[in-house]
Amino acid sequence: MKKACLVIIVLAFLLSFVLMLSSCSQAAASGYWFAGDIHLHTTHTDGQHTVDEMAQAAISTGLDFIAITDHDTLRPFEDVNDANAAHDNFLVMSGVEISQTWGHFVAYNVSYLPYEVNEKWNESPWEAQEAIDELLEHNPGAVIFLAHPFFPGLSWNYPDTEGFHGIETWNRYDNRSYDHPDNVNAFAWWDELNSDGRRTFGMATSDAHHRDYIGSTRIHVYAPSLEEYAIMTAIRNGTYYGTSGPRLTFSAEDTMMGGSHRVGRGTNSVSLTVGGSYTSNITQVTLIVNGEIEHTWLPNETEFFDTYVLEASRGDFARLEIYADGNHFAFSNPIWFD
Questions:
Q1: Which CATH number fits domain 249-337: 3.40.50.720, 3.40.50.1100, 3.30.470.20, 2.60.40.2470?
Q2: Distance of CA 60 to CAs 43, 53, 208, 220, 314, Å?
Q3: Strands 247-252 and 240-243
Q4: What is the pTM of this model?
Q5: In this predicted model, what pLDDT tens digit does every residue of 233-285 receive, in sequence order?
Q6: What CATH number is given for 31-242 in this structure?
Q7: CATH 3.20.20.140 residue window(s) in the chain
Q8: d(CA 139, CA 275)
């Protein structure tokens, strides 16, 4: 009898161990949410703090990663490596903000610049499309976002440009809120691009030049690990949302934001999962389809989750916005229906 009990106990232990390993494996496969701010400036150009000071500020803010994007230079590269060596469980990435008279764009996964303007900004020998083409030729894995496309004096005036992955729909520089006219125009252009079939991701950044503003606007990225390749792959795929605080949930059945959901010909009923949470009340949740408001919820509570059946056709796209007390805001990347 004692032997039988012992066998049962051992088998139960082994079963629980196998289940635990299975659970861990599933968690690793499904990924995790990591928060980051990927448009920052340091003393290498017009920022007020060093790379490491910016990293320390980001850690104290609760971020998991940042990207240093000084103007027209890769000089911060060594400081980025030093910051990564100095801080555990935190990622610092290198990027660059190409800053010319015709506009600015931010690029990541860049190890070589076809020119180095140092302190002489605005002296690129190329126009906008040529600059993007040159950068991609020398850095085939580069990820490019047009920066603050409607800021006065820094506007992007080349709507037919190709080769970029997304645009900064919410750039927080100088404390611009999501409803600042410059950002409102960026959101409208974003919807136009997607309505025209030019699949484009939105981006939220603080564009901080001072450490006090890091993370005021950020992205939450869904990735399998806190490694540069994993984070940048998720950003390239649009598997993230922008926010000043609220958490956001948005999927079409098994398709996450940034993805394409397969539908048949004609109209298809697709179940969407929408929701979010925050420390203050969520006052409004808006579903936007093809650039137009499809449905609005007014939960007025700190947590909200619901399902919505969308009648979708091929070529449609949908995205989600969340508004919370304190003028806080979050937005998803689109889900496209193919």
A1: 2.60.40.2470
A2: 20, 11, 15, 17, 44
A3: unpaired
A4: 0.89
A5: 999 999 999 999 999 999 999 999 999 999 999 999 999 999 999 999 999 99
A6: 3.20.20.140
A7: 31-242
A8: 38
